[in-house]
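In this supplementary section we document a worked example of the pipeline. Step one takes a protein sequence of length 75 as its only input; no multiple sequence alignment statistics are reported here. Step two produces a three-dimensional model, which step three serialises into structure tokens for compact storage. The input and output of this example are shown verbatim.
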Amino acid sequence: MKAYRVKGTFKMGRNWQEFTKEFVGKDDESVREKVLSVIGSKHGTKRTNIKIDSVDEIEAEDIQDLVIRDLMEEK
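The serialised model returned by step three reads:
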């Protein structure tokens, strides 16, 4: 598994909200799917209103999310 940092925007009401999240996944596509699922579920946003700008693989020492860091250390 690899760690990824995802940046993008999603529509919340009339405004677009920026986001930066870290996820663990086997590849770029699985992480994109996870982002759409999590943000859509958490904020009640349709997938068409979620725009992913970048998905970048990050090194273990660059991980900021403590949960993701713990997951990567277990591997």
